[in-house]
């Protein structure tokens, strides 16, 4: 569809600037920007004009950590690529980077093909893939090179989940060495899974079966230890490192120290660690299961270190780790044994709003909001400036955001395919009004106008912080 649109009068916010500007979108791209109420702006004309006076105009969000239809714990994450990307659009996110999974004993290519098959023709917004490497061997190391060449430039490894996704230190080192060679970025789930499994067994033997014990056995120190080990392994390999879902003060300290030493080490946190805590995990009547994810939610005191890390750039990205499981029938698999609760929280729809609320709460600036949610994830994963900013030539992924609208987050009104909200009843100020994906309106004045299949697969270049 080659329609053109001008968005007039909004406050255009990018990671670097805030200006009142009119934006011309043509053929799926940003064609021009001009300061509002100037002759240059009046010269911008299009088939359609949208008035954004009093609103923010921001780049579509880039959520670099989602798990649509992810198999986990004998079940599958409840959002498909269709429902999950639609919910993302509702929340102002226009690109996801999801994790294709290699199963042990199978190849990377096979896993990637399977994820392409799930996503193709089903997405409302653009998508790309990281690859979960669960089985490091000569063949998979070679396949890593091929994947980097075709635009899958980041690889997640797990120091947790022995017997499932787990890699030992030797396998991690080998993959890191390969990444150092081929330009890939290793993403690490940094928790000492071997030690955690011992603590899980001991807790269950004591009859400690409730969801809150998930938080107690997955200790902050075991996140910090694994983070430290991952950093040192990456240093030995001469590879960059991106640590996913950082939740503990002690882990942030490890990242900060490494960065002070000049190492190419990056960190991501997620809204659940910024807004929720072990108080949620301790909710009675098994309700705590709704908040079981790994790394786990931490005591509230850890939140200050995460916010500080986001301000000081020791943490660079906020992604959701969207991996929803319904309370009914899925989270319930772990009644009587917290270790059987499928790990993961819904959130792809809530990230932009929660981080806008963080602006109002004084944790971050408006531009930092766009930086951690749009620009940096795009740069980190080789999508910039196509994604993550508003500039001539960029994809016309643009959100008109009403900073004054009030909303109450609830499963009754959200669009994720999951029967609860992790933020049920939370009041936030700010709401997505209209969303363009490559110039096509996918949400229009809070009505869904997109469709499955609009979203295109988007191959990526390598991490743009390294060159
Ligand atoms: O609990 C989580 N985070 N589930 C998704 C898988 C992962 O480790 O990111
Ligand atoms: Zn196979
Ligand atoms: Zn993980
Ligand atoms: Zn994840």
From TrEMBL:
Its cofactor is Zn(2+). Signal peptide: none annotated. Keywords: Hydrolase, Metal-binding. Coiled coil: none annotated. InterPro entries: Amidohydro-rel, Hydantoinase/dihydroPyrase, Metal-dep_hydrolase_composite, Metal_Hydrolase, Metallo-dep_Hydrolases_sf. It comes from the Bacteria. Belongs to the metallo-dependent hydrolases superfamily. Hydantoinase/dihydropyrimidinase family. PANTHER family: COLLAPSIN RESPONSE MEDIATOR PROTEIN, HYDRANTOINASE/DIHYDROPYRIMIDINASE FAMILY MEMBER. This is Phenylhydantoinase. It comes from Streptomyces griseorubens.
């Amino acid at each position: 569809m080659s329609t053109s649109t001008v968005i007039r009068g909004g406050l255009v916010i990018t990671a670097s600037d805030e200006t009142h500007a009119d934006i011309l979108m043509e053929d799926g791209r940003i064609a021009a920007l001009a300061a509002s109420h100037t002759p240059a702006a009046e010269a911008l004309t299009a088939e359609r004009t949208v008035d954004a006076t009093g609103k923010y105009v921001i780049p579509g969000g880039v959520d670099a950590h989602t798990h649509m239809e992810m198999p986990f714990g004998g079940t599958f994450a409840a959002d498909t690529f269709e429902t999950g990307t639609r919910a993302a659009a509702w929340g102002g996110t226009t690109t996801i980077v999801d994790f294709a999974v290699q199963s042990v004993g199978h190849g990377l290519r096979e896993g990637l093909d399977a994820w392409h098959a799930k996503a193709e023709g089903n997405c409302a917004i653009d998508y790309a893939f990281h690859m979960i490497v669960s089985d490091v061997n000569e063949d998979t190391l070679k396949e890593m090179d091929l994947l980097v060449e075709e635009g899958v430039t980041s690889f997640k490894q797990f120091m947790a989940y022995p017997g499932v996704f787990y890699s030992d230190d030797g396998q991690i080192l080998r993959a890191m060495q390969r990444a150092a060679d081929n330009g890939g970025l290793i993403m690490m789930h940094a928790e000492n899974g071997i030690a955690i499994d011992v603590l899980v067994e001991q807790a269950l033997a004591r009859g400690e079966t409730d969801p809150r014990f998930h938080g107690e056995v997955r200790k902050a120190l075991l996140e910090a230890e694994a983070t430290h080990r991952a950093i040192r392994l990456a240093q030995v390999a001469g590879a960059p490192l991106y640590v996913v879902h950082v939740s503990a003060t002690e882990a942030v300290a490890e990242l900060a120290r490494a960065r002070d030493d000049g190492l190419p080490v990056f960190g991501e946190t997620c809204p659940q660690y910024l807004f929720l805590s072990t108080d949620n995990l301790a909710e009675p009547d098994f309700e705590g299961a709704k908040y079981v994810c790994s790394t786990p939610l931490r005591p509230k005191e850890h939140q200050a270190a995460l916010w500080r890390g986001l301000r000081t750039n020791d943490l660079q990205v906020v992604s959701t780790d969207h991996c929803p499981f319904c309370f009914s029938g899925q989270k319930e698999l772990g009644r009587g044994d917290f270790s059987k609760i499928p790990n993961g929280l819904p959130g792809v729809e809530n990230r932009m709003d929660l981080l806008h609320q963080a602006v109002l709460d004084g944790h971050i600036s408006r531009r930092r909001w766009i930086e951690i949610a749009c620009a940096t994830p795009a740069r980190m994963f080789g999508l910039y400036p196509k994604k993550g900013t508003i500039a001539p030539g960029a994809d016309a992924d643009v959100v008109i955001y009403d900073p004054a609208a009030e909303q109450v987050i609830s499963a009754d009104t959200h669009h994720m395919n999951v029967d609860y909200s992790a933020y049920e009843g939370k009041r936030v100020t700010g709401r997505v009004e209209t969303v363009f994906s490559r110039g096509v309106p996918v949400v229009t004045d809070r009505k869904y106008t997109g469709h499955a299949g609009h979203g295109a697969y988007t191959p990526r270049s390598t991490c743009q912080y390294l060159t």
